[in-house]
């Protein structure tokens, strides 16, 4: 007899945990851009495309996290 039973989909919990990493990553990308622009304002136009590329790559991890959550939710282990 189990003490506690998990009922429902654990994919939501998994995606919540998987979203922590990209959330931190986006914060680091934009904080680095703000810091570099504060140090050298004339380079802001030069570094802005790299900010958006970094943002897109980090957000791709969040999309992969939700995709794998849906994939694994349909396939019970065991």
From TrEMBL:
Which residue ranges traverse the bilayer? 12-34, 46-73
What topology does it adopt in the membrane? Answer: Multi-pass membrane protein
- What's this protein's function? Key component of the F(0) channel; it plays a direct role in translocation across the membrane. A homomeric c-ring of between 10-14 subunits forms the central stalk rotor element with the F(1) delta and epsilon subunits. F(1)F(0) ATP synthase produces ATP from ADP in the presence of a proton or sodium gradient. F-type ATPases consist of two structural domains, F(1) containing the extramembraneous catalytic core and F(0) containing the membrane proton channel, linked together by a central stalk and a peripheral stalk. During catalysis, ATP synthesis in the catalytic domain of F(1) is coupled via a rotary mechanism of the central stalk subunits to proton translocation.
Kindly list the residues the record flags as site (Reversibly protonated during proton transport): 59
**What is the name of this protein?**
ATP synthase subunit c
**Organism whose genome encodes this protein:** Actinoplanes palleronii
Write down the superkingdom of origin.
Answer: Bacteria
Query: What Pfam families is this protein classified in?
Result: ATP-synt_C
- Keyword terms, alphabetized: ATP synthesis, Cell membrane, CF(0), Hydrogen ion transport, Ion transport, Lipid-binding, Membrane, Transmembrane, Transmembrane helix, Transport
Mostly located where?
Answer: membrane
Family per record: Belongs to the ATPase C chain family.
* Annotated V-ATPase proteolipid subunit C-like domain residues: 11-71
Q: Where in the cell is it found?
A: Cell membrane; Membrane
Gene3D superfamilies xref list: F1F0 ATP synthase subunit C
Spell out the InterPro entries in the cross-references. Answer: ATP_synth_F0_csu, ATP_synth_F0_csu_DDCD_BS, ATP_synth_F0_csu_sf, ATPase_proteolipid_c-like_dom, F/V-ATP_Csub_sf
């Amino acid at each position: 007899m189990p003490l506690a039973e998990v009922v429902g989909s654990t994919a939501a919990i998994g995606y919540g945990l998987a979203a922590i990493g990209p959330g931190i990553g986006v914060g680091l990308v934009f904080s680095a851009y703000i810091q570099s622009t504060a140090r050298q304002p004339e380079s802001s136009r030069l570094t802005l495309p790299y900010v958006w590329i970094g943002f897109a790559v980090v957000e791709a991890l969040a999309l992969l996290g939700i995709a794998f959550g849906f994939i694994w939710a349909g396939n019970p282990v065991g």
